Amino acid sequence: MYKKEKLIKKLYQTLNIMSCEAKIARNYGTDHKLTYSDISLLKCIQNNENTKASELSQYLGMTNGAVAQFAKKLEAKGYLEPYRIDGNKKEVYYKLTDSGEAACRGCDEHYKKLMKGIEDYISQLDEDTVKKIGGLFDLIAVNAAVEQHCSIKHTAGKDEPQSDNDSQGEVIRRCEKCQRIY
Q1: CA–CA dist 174, 182 (Å, integer)
Q2: Which of 6, 52, 71, 149 has the highest count of CB atoms within 10 angstroms of its CB?
Q3: Do both 153 and 84 map to the same domain?
Q4: What are the boundaries of the signal sequence (predicted)?
């Protein structure tokens, strides 16, 4: 029983470490440190070209005002530029500058390094063990303290795609509450 209790404690510690990891402002090979929210907006712009600011707010689970605030800060630092489409003076769009693209590449490299060790470890496991670990993650997702209508929580363990963007066989899910893509 001691080993099982120790494993559960390690799981909680790991979840806390991952939560802290997301809160650390980092330099992704650019002139400024960027927060998780900063890089999330930049990555969202990178992945959704020609998307209105109001749609970005839905993707990120932020208010329009929060997106505008982050965008203004990132524009001042030289990571993105606002623009409008001819004939539509109301809607604001954003595009990444070279520095914004560099920050996104730096973020990708950072997470690629983090994932490499995990992928190497998992590749050494047999299929049954991988399935059991996946089941543990599903259990955690199902028991997470999120609203009843969270599509991520209620599709844990199911492999059906929830988006047309499923081009590589990868299941893409969006929380109906916060609109974040998982």
Answers
A1: 6
A2: 71
A3: no
A4: none
Return the beta strands (E) in the chain as ranges. 26-27, 33-34, 80-85, 88-96
b/e map 6-42, b = 16+ CB within 10 Å = eeeeeeeeeeeeeeeeeeeebebebebebeebbbbbb
What whole-number distance in Å separates Cα of residue 33 and Cα of residue 103? 10
Domain range enclosing 156: 126-182
In a domain, 45, yes or no: yes
Cα separation, 11 vs 159, in Å, equals 24
Query: Are 118 and 71 in the same domain?
Result: yes
Residues 31 and 119 in one domain: yes
* Residue 143 and residue 117 share a domain: no
Output the pTM of the full model. Answer: 0.71
pLDDT tens digits, residue range 33-78?
A: 999 889 989 999 998 888 888 888 888 878 889 999 999 999 999 9
Q: What is the DSSP letter of 50?
A: T
Cα diameter, the chain: 68
Q: Is residue 11 part of a domain?
A: no
**Strand 33-34 relative to strand 26-27, pairing:** antiparallel
